[in-house]
Amino acid sequence: MATFTQPHHHRSFSTFNPSRPKPKPAAATRIRMSLKEDAPSVAVVGVTGAVGQEFLSVLHDRDFPYRSIKMLASKRSAGKHLSFQNREYTIEELTADSFDDVDIALFSAGGSISKEFGPVAVEKGAVVVDNSSAFRMEEGVPLVIPEVNPEAMKGIKAGIGKGALIANPNCSTIICLMAATPLHRRAKVKRMVVSTYQAASGAGAAAMEELLQQTREVLEGKPPTCNIFKQQYAFNLFSHNAPVVSNGYNEEEMKLVKETRKIWNDMDVKVTATCIRVPVMRAHAESVNLQFENPLDEETAKDILRSAPGVVVIDDRAANHFPTPLEVSNKDDVAVGRIRRDLSQDGNHGLDIFVCGDQIRKGAALNAVQIAEMLL
User: Fold this and answer.
1) Distances from the Cα of 3 to the Cαs of 19, 37, 70, 328, in angstroms?
2) Catalytic site residue from 176, 184, 240, 284
3) Which DSSP string corresponds to 231-262?
4) N or C: fewer beta carbons within 10 Å in the chain?
5) Average pLDDT of each block of 10 consecutive residues along the chain (376 residues)?
6) Distances from the Cα of 347 to the Cα of 6, 223, 230, 297, 343, angstroms
7) pTM over the 0.85 mark
């Protein structure tokens, strides 16, 4: 693989449409499509984590073009080998020198790592797509869902030697707004009430493993191991484990409030949330109540959602079949169902919907890679 010896030289990359479904050709074809001399150099930070691994899966599935790719992680993972697209890579320790000749850096190693190394990567000319909460609410940092607000990253390109930071929204915000935004565009949301049912994947690979372990332990009559969470997770649910702030909301709930306003560029929209951790492996579910400024009936809402990019409608009342976390696990699209008029509001000014989306995929890795595609 060629190295980019002139990182400040302008490079012209292919244009991608992040909303377009990507075909999945044979493996040999994928490799030939991905490795390109005129493509960007990529770094994956936190490659050994659940989202880092999903970054690689999404890059592979969407045939993301690259001329070189760095696998970066902590010192304890450095030196280990990782196979990607029939090539063997050695995981490198993340240092300040890791971003020489890197055009796009995909970060998912936690907020403290992002704060330390994100600005370093930008200084060296890389465009950083950060999956942590470190920069989401910073003035001037785009907070982007490609299907919702691609205009927020206008003018940012990879390979021109000018670094930039782009933030990936929180997973619950992405999944919610994928469904709510098309309706908001039609009838303008005045108030949104969200109740989330969040999977173990949101707390990382160790939490997913602990849920499996606890399930076995409880079924065998043993006390559950509680290292990640302070209480039993298997066969239980509890308020999201994010810290509770002074107003009584936890940080996860406040992310939905603040991030929605920033992404919609609407400081007046009223948002309230209750976030719950449920014993599901990797896909979040959300109950969303919407109050509109303009009338919107449920049939029109269904038509709008059926044509929305990245959204699939599962709404079979006769069969009582609606979205479930299992149905969307490992899937790109966010599923929407239970689309019905809010009976507590007069006329057609309110709807209830139920949304499910894969937290690791669209809620994290896929959204970040779609942003990277827009940089090309």
Assistant:
1) 30, 9, 11, 38
2) 284
3) S--TT--EE-SSPB-TTS-BHHHHHHHHHHHH
4) N
5) 31 42 45 72 95 96 96 95 95 96 95 96 97 96 98 91 94 98 98 98 93 98 96 97 97 98 97 98 97 97 98 98 97 98 95 97 97 95
6) 61, 52, 45, 9, 9
7) yes
Q: What are the beta bridge partners of residue 239? A: 276
Active-site annotation holds for 171: yes
> In 10-41, which positions are buried (b, 16+ CB within 10 angstroms) versus exposed (e)?
ebebeebebeeeeeeeeeeebeeebbeeebbb
Is 284 catalytic? The answer is yes
Alpha-helical regions (H) of the chain: 27-34, 50-61, 111-123, 171-187, 205-219, 251-264, 298-306, 325-328, 366-374
What DSSP assignment string belongs to 67-99?
SEEEEEE-TTTTT-EEEETTEEEE-EE--TTTT
* Catalytic site residue from 171, 176, 275, 356: 171
Cβ-based burial of 141 (10 A; exposed 0-12, middle 13-18, buried ≥19): buried
Q: Angle CA(186)–CA(188)–CA(189) in degrees, nearest 5? A: 125
Full set of structural domains in the chain with CATH: 41-168+365-374 (3.40.50.720), 172-358 (3.30.360.10)
| Nearest alpha carbon to residue 349 among 305, 312, 297 | 297
